[in-house]
Each structure stands twice: as C-alpha cells, then as structure tokens.
Amino acid sequence: MGPDHRWGTFPAVGVGWRLSQESFLSGSDLFSNAMLRFGWGITGNQNIPNGRTVDLYGGENGDTFYDIGGTGSIQTGYRLQSLGNPDLKWEENKSVNLGFDVELKHRTNISVDVYNRTTDNLLFPPALPATAGVANPPYVNIGKMRNRGIEVSLGYNGTIGEGKLWNMNLTATHYNNEILQIDGVSTSFFGPIATRNQNAVINQVGQPIGSFFGLMANGYYTDSLDAAQCGTGDPLGKCWDDGARPGRIKFVDVNGDHHITAADRVVIGSPHPDLTAGLDLGLRWGQFDVSATFFGSFGNKIFDVQKYWYVFRVFDTNVRNDLLTNSATLDGQCNAVPPPPGSPTGTPGTYPCPGKLTNPGAKYPRVDVSDDFSKQYSSYYIEDGTYVRLRSLQIAYNVPAGWVRWIPAARIYVQAENLFTITGYEGLDPSLPAANIQGNSQEDLRDQYRGVDRGSYPSNRLISFGISTSF
After folding, report:
1. How many whole angstroms separate alpha carbon 254 and alpha carbon 233?
2. What would the mean pLDDT of 324-347 be, rounded to a whole number?
C-alpha cells in the first residue's frame, strides 16, 4: 500500500442467540439445538503484485536495445514497464450475514445463511489508451461490486434396519453478482484478454463481472433477399454489404441502423450459475463402508471459443465430426434482391442467389471458407453449462483386528474420481478447470474469464486402489 495507507482498521462483530436454551424451547423433544446468528465485518485485501506503489523499470533485448557509438554492438537498455501509484489503499470487503442453525432429535441438521457483501475501493489496473505507451497500467482503487446470496445445508444421520448406518449432507448456494461502479465515469470496459482479435467478456455496471458480450444470433439467412434485408424484411437493409449471405448466421440489428456492426453487440450471457449444489452420501454395513460425493452447477452459460476453430476452420485443424452432415445447405429456387425501382425490364436482381436454405434447424452455418461474417463472437458461441458430476465414489472393507497377527487393523478400498458427468454441453468439460490466467500486470483474471472455454485440459477420471494400516 501507499506510504500514507499502510495501516487499515477492519472491525468485525458476531452475536448469537441460542434459542434451544430459552424457556419456550428448552423442554422440546424436537429441537435438540437451535441458534440464530448475526455477523457484520470488514476485511481488507492487498493481494496485488509487489512494488506497485512505484514505477518499475526493466527491459530485454526484444524491446529495449541500443547501438551505442554506431559500432553495431547492441546493448540492453531499460524502459518503464509498470506505472506505480503511491496513493494505493486497502481494498475493503464489507459483509453482513444472518444465519440460523437447528438440530432436530440429534439426527437432522439444518443451516441457513443469507449474506450481503460489498467490495469497495476495488484494486484494479484499468486499461490505458495507446497514447500512454506500452507500460503496464497502475493499480488504482476504483470500482464497487456487490454479492448477495443464500447458502443452505441439510444433514441427516440415520439407520436402516440393524447394523446399517447412513448419512447424508446436502448443500446449495445461490448468489447474485453485480458491478455497482467502475470509476464514476465509465460504465463498462472489456475483459483484459482478447482471443483472435475479438473479446468475449465485458465488465459493465449493472451486470455480473465477466459477462459475455457479442452479437445476437437468430438462426440463418434463408436467401439473398433475406440476407440483404437483415432478416427482418427491412427494405433499407444493407446487411449484404456487411457480409450477410444465405446459410450464414443471422444477427439481430439491435440499434436499427440497417447494418450489422460492432454497435449491435450486447450482453449475451452470464457465467455465474443460478444454483450450485453438493451431495455427500455415506453408508456403513458391518465391515463395509461406501461414500459418494456429487456436485452440480445449474443455469450458468459457457462461451465456447473452441467453435472458432472446430466450426469455422480458422486454421487447418480438427473440425467437429458432424460438421459436414449437420451444416446449413442451400438448394432450390430462392428470392434474389429485386433491381432498383425504374430499372429496364429484364435487369437482374441486385445480388445473385446461390440457393434457398433447406434446413433452418441445422446445427452449424453453411460450410464456407470465406465466411468471416458468421464467425463473429455472438450468442451462437453460448451454451448451457449445467452439469451434475459424481466427483468421488469409494468402497472400502475394514479388516477386523486379529485377522493378521502383526497388523492390528487395516482398510482396503477402491476409489473413483470424476466417474461420470451428466450435461448437455458439447465441449470437453463443463466444469472448465480454472487456468492460472494473468494479465500483463500479473493480476488474477480468473473472475473475469470465468466460463470461457479456451480448450483447458479436462478433469481426469481416476480409479485407484489402496490399503491403509498401522503397525
């Protein structure tokens, strides 16, 4: 932190009311424990790279070198690499939570927490204009963000017949993330990492952090007239000039200027789930025990950047195995764009028509190596990221003491991880294992690139055998 802001004060308070010890519940056979909780507090964060309160200099042969004296002997020099900010302050997270815990008949446990968390003086390196040079931007205290949510936990311990014990614990979380302020002037800025000269992520006031950004896709153009008129019958439409063609993706002219341009891009999805849930199950029967852990994420979206390669064939790489059989095709008579009014009889249409779309429900646009129009980032790249996964399954046998004289006890088990996943996502892994994504200023960008599938290596399925014992 800056010299004048090295110290911070972060108070917190928590109070609880154990209802089960009050006279109106102390004699209850149902409630073995009940407690109401309230907490308020402020925590500080200074998790940024070291030395960012001062300007940092450095250089390599690739970006700073000098031919001193004109002898042809190149010497490495130094340049300004990162701008400093001597007025950096602590980032503050202010939270309020209300919770309730209850235990019923020493078997069932229920816990509910509702919280509101606001991040103020957010530490962030905003992008600088190109005229500022190539130095990394300074960290500044700008921005304000809010998270609201609810967490619920339900646990149970029971028996099945004689000698069979089982337990269950279910947790569920719902939250809402919203950017409240950026710098008091700007209302949005793009994510810090672009892919193939396009940017899939925007941070915008009133939207969740890391929202997806692009054009709105609405099927495919059916013929030349449909393409020229922007798919809406607009007689003033000029979308043909923008690259619209039969069989290509039809984009929505959001601003109504009769063209498809970058000005038509909007927020097209959020990587944040509506609900996440986990389920732990356990069963013990004699010397055997079984445990399983499930996890699910529901309602989140994934921006599948891999379509840029596998569908639009930007390079000579692999393609989707059904690309040829499930792409838009053109055949039969179609409507060309009529000639301008007053043209001589017999004047051909303004644009030719290669055919009419025969399969509007096709999975992919028409195969066309010259199609730079359809590959623009749009809602076509968005898929539902909902999934349920069996994260862990373990079956074990506890060897009774005395079976082997010199081993007092042992446990033999087989364990499987990521055994199966139920999802409609067509990519490799809907969980998108988090990559260590950093920007030029070494800031952690994972929150701003959540839900973007850039081809991360998928989760492994592991099956292992083991034995644990003591001597």
Report:
1. 15
2. 72
